[in-house]
Amino acid sequence: MVGTVRYIAIEGPIGVGKTPLAELLAQRLPARLVRERFEENPFLEKFYQDIRGFAFQTQVFFLLARHRQLQELSQTELVLLEGALVPERAVVSDYMFDKDRIFATLNLTEPELALYYRIYDLIKKDIPKPDLIIYLQAQPDVLLTRIRQRGRPFEANIEPDYLFALSNLYNSFFLHYEEAPVLIVNADRLDFLSNPEEFEELFRAILEHRSGRKFYSPQARKR
């Protein structure tokens, strides 16, 4: 892989297209693909039916499951290089561990959030940090359309207001995020699955980005 980037995490709100991009990117590099195992959460379907009633159980399960999965990565796929743990081969993940805080902030009450952060702060130190984060950004109406198109039954009750609030929290989070380089991608009209040229342009932008925060808009590049 070009440069020192070995661990890429792709982030963004529900329905933005994280997993399809992660699959293409992992194949193109090539790299090991790490998918979030959301289907293993036994509370997720109940959460979307009753957010307030099942928020804490859902959130803590995700927190611990993501920790376990990425800790397994650090134990089996990382090597020590210049005093820091880095992947032995390129890794592409369709989520980053820190995303959990975004959902926790949105879904938990103040007492629940205080307890959540006690757990989070204890386990975060065991998690490797990405070398690059790709933040896919899209309007809530675009997200809702894509969620409806993929047809997951447990997502049928997601409300537009929830997606609006989630998108705002994502934007705020990455506006202030400084722990790794971030490529912010306007994904409103991005169609890398059916348009290989769009994916290749994005791929070049990913390879070129090495520091700070950069915005990428395929629409702007075409004008």
Question: What report would you give on this structure?
Answer:
With 223 residues, this protein is α/β, with parallel strands linked by helices. It has a single domain (7-222), classed as P-loop containing nucleotide triphosphate hydrolases (Rossmann fold, 3-Layer(aba) Sandwich), CATH 3.40.50.300. The chain is built from nine helices and eight strands. The strands form two sheets. It has a six-stranded parallel sheet, with helices on both faces. The chain has a two-stranded antiparallel ribbon with strand order 3-4. α8 (196-208) links the parallel β7 and β8. It is globular and about 45 Å long. The protein starts with 6 loop residues before the first strand and ends with a helix.
Helices and strands, in N-to-C order?
EHEHHEEEHHEHHEHEH
Number of strands: 8
Secondary-structure-derived class: alpha/beta
What's the helix count?
9
- Largest sheet, spatial ordering of strands: 2-5-1-6-7-8
Which CATH architecture is right?
3-Layer(aba) Sandwich
Kindly estimate the percentage of residues that lie in beta strands according to DSSP: 15-25%
Query: Any idea what the CATH superfamily is called?
Result: P-loop containing nucleotide triphosphate hydrolases
CATH fold field value? Rossmann fold
Inertia-based shape: globular
User: Unreliable stretches, pLDDT < 50, 5 or more residues?
Assistant: none
